Amino acid sequence: MNWDAWLPLLVVASSVLPGLVIFFLREGSHGLRTTLNLAGASLKLVLVGILIWGVFHEHVYETRWTLAPGLELVLQADTLSVLFVSLSTLLWLVTTVYAVGYLENSPHRSRFFGFFSLCVSATVGLALAGNLFTFVIFYELLTLATYPLVAHRGTPEALRGARIYLGYTLGGGMLLLIGSVWLHVIAGPTAFVEGGLLSRLPVDYHPQLQVIFLLLITGLGVKAALVPLHGWLPQAMVAPAPVSALLHAVAVVKAGAFGIVRVVYDVYGVQFADQLGLLTALGIAAAVTIVYGSVKALFQDNLKKRLAYSTVSQVSYIALGTAILGPIGTIGGLVHLVHQGVMKITLFFSAGNYAETLGVHRVSEMNGVGRRMPATTLAFTVAALGMIGIPPVAGFVSKWYLGLGAVEAGMAAWVMPVLLTSSALNAAYFLPVLYRAWFRSPGPAWPAEHIAATRFETAGALLWPPVVTATLALAAGLFAAAPYSPLEWAKLIAQREYGL
Amino acid sequence: MNAFLLLLIWSLPLLLTAFAGQRYARWFMLIAPLPALLAAAALPVGTNVSLPWLLLGVELGLDQTARVFLWFSGLLWLAASLYAAGSQADGHSAPRYRICFLLAMAGNLGLIVAQDMVSFYLGFTLMGLAVYGLVVHPASQRARQAARRYLAWTIAGELLLFVAVVMLAAENGGVLAFDVLMVNPPAGLVVLLLVIGFGIKLALPGLHFWLPQTYAVTPTPAVAVLSGAMIKAGLLGWLRFLPPGDAALAGWGQGLMVAGVTGIFFGALVGLAQHRPRRLLGYSSISKMGVLTLGMGAALAWPAAAPALVGALAMYAAHHALVKGALFLGLGLAERGGLRPWLLAGLGALALALAGAPLTSGALAKSVLTASLPQQAHSLLPVLAASAFATTLLMARFLFLVWRRRRSIAVPNAPESTTAWLALLAVIVVFPFAFAAAGQLSANVVPVSLAALVAAVVLRVAARLPVSIGVGQRRTTGRQHVLRAVRGIRPLAHSARFVFGGLVQAWHNACQRVRQLLRSRLQHPQRADESQDHWPVAGSLWLGIGGLLLSAFVAAA
Amino acid sequence: MADALIWSVVTPLAGALLTLLLPRPATAVVMATGLATTVAAGSLLYGVGTQGAMLYEIGGWTAGLGIALRADALSALLLTMTALVVLAASVYSSVYLSKTSERTRFWPLWLLLWTALNALLLSADLFNLYVTLELMGLSAVALAALAGKPAAVQAALRYLLVGLLGSMLFLAGVTLIYAGYGTLDMASLARTVEAGPVAWTALALMTAGLLLKTALFPLHFWLPPAHASAPAPVSAVLSALVVKAAFYLVLRLWLDVFAELVTTTAADLLGVLGAGAVLWGSWCALRAERLKLLAAYSTVAQLGYLFLFLPVLQALPPGPARDLAMGGLVILALTHGFAKAGLFLAIGVVQQRAGHDTIRELDGTAQRLPATTFAIALAGVALIGLPPSGAFLGKWQLLAGSVATGQWLWLVVTAIGSLLAAAYIFRVLGHAFGHRAYPNRPVTIAREEWPALLLTATAAVVLGLAGAPVWKLLEGGA
């Protein structure tokens, strides 16, 4: 049995199969559902571990399946896919635990967890995609799998948010599809190869390639929430907290950013893209998004909306890193993929805890919440400090590499002000939240205290995930220079991309 | 073992934060500064430890400067912790206060032993942010405002430093250790960023706006370490990042000297007009930091004299730190428990020390500093003398204010607090005699005595006059300026909005009309289909298509 | 192996007669017939796959004198699809049609329709095509009017008139050809026909007639009322198979028999009409109040996509690119067949359970029938053209073809059409999410819900993932 060919498929299947089974479970079979979920997640983790080891030793893992002549479904594990897959898998495990606790006693859990598993499968498939065709397929599947999650609650607001989400993402998917078809017609099947293959095309194709790039990036930019395509993100906040956590840290937004990374590095090749002037355009879009997102976040009182705009801003760091020519900038963007995921998911978990335990949805209601829920607020603090870029939390490492890359590429004149403004704005909208949480006294009563304070501040399944992810965020920064850290892995990817 | 001790210096306070909520936490905090003192006493200069797996690669080490800094910082933190053990109430916000205290300590001590840029930055940032928690602790409106201002300035400084550090790292190919800066010193924009970034911490005139109010509201133990140990981090930053000894930075040195002189006199003059002792001490700090800036500038301008100057600066920093810290602690005792005679005497001794009266640590520091100045810098000597003069006046006013504000015994001071202060006082009084060579303790005789005379006269006179001046008391100047500017733009904004609004309205009307048109046509498309049911319509459509097809075939022939 | 050809036609015919004669065990007879025909279709497909095109001459009379049946890859694939869809719909109908009296009238017509479909797909000469076309039309009309309600009868009558007009035009064209060339065998005609007034007029007449029967915009007005008032299984077959059979004929005429006559302008004309169908049909579906109307208009739109392929095929020179596009067309047609059939069956379940099919009032029903809603969702995926459905592959080829030939209009139309399709599908699916909790019983009546689920699953997943053999078949068996 050729394991090398089966392993990528198994990684995807390890969540598809439990998902399909879960659909048919009765609402009451809580134990079986949780077991299936966790078993699938753990199995996936093990398989991904094998993948990491193998890719590090330059093994080739590839699954191929022909759908039509010239159109092959390819799942392959290279350094970049392993980065995203491991992030997704690890965070899926944590989010599953959280979701089990969060959705206790709410209706339609089987449907939720079924689509939850499918969502992760789509993400993992997208991460392991070995060519643009496969990427497009899983990109659309991700949209399909996440729609029911956003609409889960079934209230008019939820349905409206889901409709808006769908409108944006399907539109983006269509643009991506057109770009991919066009590229396929002029350049054949576009496999993801480090350094890209498009530079070999004759010069007459360059204008077309520029238009195609615009189409691709716009299509991907919808999910990656580049301004002005970000409108769905704050609307999708109506989803339950585990969904927001997953969507904004792992699945949807990262998929868009990951796609942008893939297109620039493995389809066009970063040198070629720079030649065509595409990196500058991307950089400007990223810079505008970074500043715009942070400014909008300042004016939000709803905590989840504030975090949503913060996501809009932070994910564009990845695009910015991609736009900075040179390995250091690349490292900054790639490592931020992981760091932002871990930090943002912590923030969303904490926000979910506040909502679920105390009925606190707004920043103005958060006075003194640090005393009532210290562990959650501590996790929130660590993640928020990381977002601002304060060492030793992971966010500092990403900003460091982005700044360093910009200086080395000679782009410091406009990148540095963007980074500084963004950090200052981040401080401006996170620090007041921390101040309220830690330094103010709480009001007479919480808006809606659902979970009473026992020995622990809230339910175990709600408490542990943010603590774990906050610890990871801290560790990713503290031990950034240690082997097997996300930073070291990002360095490896950059090495192979630039052929160093 | 040595390496472990270096790690413990900053990791022990971090670990102790976990116990901040325990019953005897106040006593645990006392052991936090001990590794620093132990290291300062026992570790040989040149001890190094390298942790390439931590953060971006951490280098820790103990050089001569670090040792001096560890000494005075460690002592001050210890004294402040002991004081806090006595004064800090065990309320529900006490753990929070202790955690911030410990974090600030970790950052402060950590940056002292840092030998690479990133870990220095880490300690600096940690310290800066943790202090916020201490400043905002009193939970009054004034405290919140002061804390916010402090935070804004601190973050601005940290952001500038981030840019500088990144640029330095880029220039040196990613190598972060300070040694590389000796070989390839910073130049141009980077130096400006470093000067401003650390200058904010050192409260250079123009960057000092956060300081007086912060000192006014922060609880006593915190302000003691803030004014004593933490402000010196700015100096250490300069010493590390702008290594004196290279001729390239001579121009900057001149600039720093000018800034220093400005600071000296600015601080003194504005300080004299204060009504509250704490703010006065704040301005006094600004003045003294001016002296340090002056010395730093001299070290950069005259590289040959740099090694001696650096040592002198370290000594001066140590003197100022201990004395200022003790002044604040004593002030705290007085505010709480009333002005006992021995307290007044101690404060008087400290005042003399700060002024640099003979036989005090101030005199020692001053002599060492003047001795290390090179020949070319002798024009600075009068400045230093004037500084002593001004400081004496300032201290006189301080004592006057303390005396005037005294009240009858409200709450007796805790024995721990008193012990802490007395111990610190003892160290300050004794150490000059331990370290000084002959003749060093007799500096500043003229300026100090002159100033004392002037002060006495003024006091007699002023006792008769009812007038009082308030300078530097404006709290919201910055904001008012901005508001005024904004108000000026308002008419312009109004007309712009009028024009723009009209355009937007016209666009809306047009869109509305188009929308209505489309809606009527597309709302019920089935009706359109049903109209086709009429056979004439269907038939003609069909005939049309058939004809078109035929002509399509024919035409191409 | 060639016997499969004749069995595919004879078995359902025999079944129809049997059900007429033996009304009691009718259901069992139908099931047996269904299975047998499906097996025949399957072996036909297998035969074409291994041997290439197959020919069967009835009674041994050679072409020109007798009736011949020919199967190539295209017809084999469509035949298999027909078999599977009708089988599934038969299983469904055995439960759906509760009244015995209904059933006695239903089964014979049903199997007759199947016979007509199979014969049409396998006919090798033009007159035979006319006969089967007429037969198909008449049985379809009868089935559509079966419900007996006034609206249904009116719609069926309209369908009848339009259908007769269409087939008469077709006959006129056939007559012209016979007059001009003396033969009706398609293979020999393909060799001998040449551009000239006779051929042009004949093709124009036949095409115009077929356009009426395939409900291409703007001649589609009869379809929505007819399909919407018919019983669910009938609508399924009408939308999935009957209109597609007419389209199949257009393909045969344009790509095989009269390939030389087709000009770019003519192809573009059909393309433009197809574009109109896509946009208008999708928009009407979006505004539809009833599920069945929505599905019917969706058929109009989906047929438009098939017509969009024609200008692309015309512009591509023979070669790998053209083969890819052809395969895309076929797989799109297949996917739509399965998806639309499954959709109508699912809608039928909903209609029975709720008593109505008004979209706005669907809430409770959608939530109480998870499997059916899921089937609708799967059908939706295939109709929108999202992966992993076969329609995704088909649309990819359409887009690739338009890019390669520089015909950007089709690309834009396809994109807009897909987005509109997404809008109307998710409008329906939105009603599947509500706050009240229902016990999670996925499938209530197995025989009703499983066929729909299987059909749509085929469309949405199987054809997408296992669709590569379609291209191989078309290459080899053409």
Describe the structure.
The complex is a heterotrimer of chains A (500), B (557) and C (478). The radius of gyration of chain A is 21 Å and the shape is globular. Chain A has helices spanning 3-23, 30-56, 79-102, 109-128, 132-150, 156-187, 206-223, 232-235, 241-250, 252-268, 270-275, 278-298, 303-323, 327-358, 369-372, 374-388, 394-408, 412-439, 460-478, 486-498; strands at residues 61-68, 71-77. Chain A has 20 helices and two strands. Chain B starts with a helix and ends with a helix. Chain C has three domains: 1-122; 124-259; 263-478, no CATH class. Chain C is globular. In chain C, helix 1 packs antiparallel against helix 2 (26-51) and helix 12 (291-315) packs antiparallel against helix 17 (408-429). Chain C is 78% helix and 2% strand. Chain C has a two-stranded antiparallel sheet with strand order 1-2. Chains in contact: A-B, A-C, B-C. Chains A and C meet through strand 1, helix 5 and helix 6 of A and helix 13, helix 16, helix 17 and helix 19 of C.
Main β sheet profile of chain A = 2 strands, antiparallel
Helix share, percent of chain A: over 70%
Number of domains of chain A: 2
| Average of pLDDT of chain C | 87
Strand order of the largest sheet of chain A: 1-2
Structural class of chain A: mainly alpha
Report the biggest beta sheet of chain C as strand number plus sense, adding barrel if it closes: 2 strands, antiparallel
**Beta-strand percentage of chain A?**
under 5%
Largest inter-chain interface?
A-C, 45 and 42 residues
TL;DR of this structure?
In chain A, about 75% of the residues lie in helices and about 5% in strands.
Question: What characteristics describe this protein?
Answer:
heterotrimer, A: 500 residues, 2 domains, 20 helices, 2 strands, B: 557 residues, two-stranded antiparallel sheet
List the helices and strands and how they pair.
The complex is a heterotrimer of chains A (500), B (557) and C (478).
Chain A: H1 3-23, H2 30-56, E1 61-68, E2 71-77, H3 79-102, H4 109-128, H5 132-150, H6 156-187, H7 206-223, H8 232-235, H9 241-250, H10 252-268, H11 270-275, H12 278-298, H13 303-323, H14 327-358, H15 369-372, H16 374-388, H17 394-408, H18 412-439, H19 460-478, H20 486-498
Antiparallel strand pairs in A: 1-2
Helix pairs in contact in A: 1-2, 1-4, 2-3, 3-4, 3-9, 3-14, 3-19, 4-5, 5-6, 5-10, 6-7, 7-10, 9-10, 9-14, 10-13, 12-13, 12-18, 13-14, 14-16, 14-17, 14-19, 14-20, 16-18, 16-19, 17-18, 17-19
Chain B: H1 2-16, H2 25-31, H3 34-42, E1 47-51, E2 58-62, H4 64-87, H5 94-113, H6 117-135, H7 141-171, H8 179-183, H9 189-202, H10 211-217, H11 220-230, H12 232-241, H13 250-272, H14 277-301, H15 306-337, H16 341-355, H17 361-372, H18 380-404, H19 415-435, H20 445-464, H21 477-522, H22 525-531, H23 535-555
Antiparallel strand pairs in B: 1-2
Helix pairs in contact in B: 1-3, 1-5, 2-4, 3-4, 4-5, 4-11, 4-15, 4-19, 5-6, 6-7, 6-11, 7-9, 7-10, 9-12, 10-14, 11-15, 12-14, 13-14, 13-18, 14-15, 14-18, 15-16, 15-17, 15-19, 16-18, 16-19, 18-20
Chain C: H1 3-21, H2 26-51, E1 54-57, E2 68-71, H3 73-96, H4 100-122, H5 126-144, H6 150-181, H7 186-192, H8 197-213, H9 223-229, H10 232-257, H11 264-287, H12 291-315, H13 320-354, H14 363-368, H15 370-384, H16 390-405, H17 408-429, H18 446-465, H19 468-477
Antiparallel strand pairs in C: 1-2
